[in-house]
Amino acid sequence: MTQPLHNKVIFITGASRGIGREIALRAAKDGAKIVIAAKSDKPHPKLPGTIQTVAKEVTDAGGDALPIVLDVRDEESVHTAVKTATEHFGGIDILVNNASALFIAPTLETPMKRFDLIQSVNVRGTFLCSQACLTWLKKSSNPHILNLSPPLNLDAKWFKDHLAYTISKYGMSMCTLGMSEEFRQSGVAVNSLWPKTTIATAAIAVNFPEPVLRASRKPAIVADAAYVILTSESKNTTGNFFIDEDVLKKQGKTDFSEYAIDPREKLFPDLFV
Fold first, then answer.
1. What average pLDDT does the structure give for the chain?
2. Is 227 noted as a catalytic residue in this protein?
3. Mean pLDDT of all residues in 88-111
4. Which of 24, 112, 178, 262 shows the smallest number of beta carbons within 10 Å?
5. How far is residue 162's CA from residue 270's CA, in Å, rounded to a whole number?
6. Helix, strand or coil for residue 225?
7. pLDDT for residue 151
8. In the chain, what are the helix, strand and coil shares in percent, each to the nearest 5?
């Protein structure tokens, strides 16, 4: 049976938990080589998962793992991580810009420290990691950059309640818009992927009421959609703003109940959808 991601080198930021971890585990089933790049080197008192625990899970699932401590805000750290990854695995075929900081608040309730954090992690981190990996991606036979960011929509309703966060996530999507065209002739696919519903991650658990968590889907739905995108032909799949459910529907899937945290709950729509 063909395994499209077998021996592909996939660099995933924020891969120690949540969606990043799930994408890593899905790719590991094909025998992919996963760079688990995240800050979580030691166990967090409230949040599960470290780069080491995910590395073991990837290996157990059939993949090869390289855990690297990475803060995407640190330019030197990013370039060192890319150097380490390419020396270890020989290149990079796929970059998943999953690392993200969440802060939902109106303008007058957003401290500049928080503003700077979400901009530096979300948009700057995406730009920096893409820039650092592109030399290697251009050498790959089927290179992809996948940004976990929403469709661009300038309706004011997506800005008025959480302007700083919207700027940061739309900044990631603007990287998709610009880089997909800039690197089209090089064959590097650049796409965005966003969930139709909230996803049961630590970020949702910490920042939203418990009923929202119950009305969310498991990260596996995003990972399954990511797999479809990352195994597509890069030259024919670029510049898109995908929604997880829509991607899987095009593959013929009709029953999504397996992804629900609680199938009895009405699903809670994510922001920007």
1. 95
2. no
3. 97
4. 112
5. 14
6. helix
7. 98
8. 45, 15, 40
To the nearest whole percent, how much of the chain has pLDDT over 70? 97
Nearest residue to 148 via CA among 101, 214, 86, 194: 194
CA 249 vs CA 22, 197, 221, 246: distances in Å: 20, 15, 11, 5
SS (H, E, C) 101-157: CCCCCCHHHCCHHHHHHHHHHHHHHHHHHHHHHHHHHCCCCCCEEEECCCCCCCCHH
Amino acid at 139: K
Structure tokens at 250: 């095009």
Cα(1)–Cα(146) distance, integer angstroms: 25
Tokens 């799949």 sit on residue: 237
Is 111 within 8 Å of 153 (Cβ atoms)? no
Sign of the Cα torsion 194, 195, 198, 204 reads negative
Strands of 186-253 (E only): list them: 189-194, 241-243
pTM: 0.96
Task: Tell me whether residue 233 is exposed, middle or buried, using C-beta atoms within 10 angstroms of its C-beta: 0 to 12, 13 to 18, 19 or more.
Answer: exposed
SS3 91: coil
Categorize the per-residue pLDDT at 1 as very low, low, confident or very high, splitting at 50, 70 and 90. low
Residue 40's pLDDT is what? 85
Inter-axis angle of helices 163-182 and 125-137, nearest 10: 20
Residue 23 has pLDDT above 90, yes or no: yes
Q: How far apart are CA 231 and CA 30, in angstroms?
A: 11
> For residues 5 and 205, is the Cβ–Cβ distance under 8 A?
no
Backbone angles phi, psi at 134, to 5 degrees: -60, -35
Please tell me which residue in 165, 170, 227, 259 is annotated as part of the active site. 165
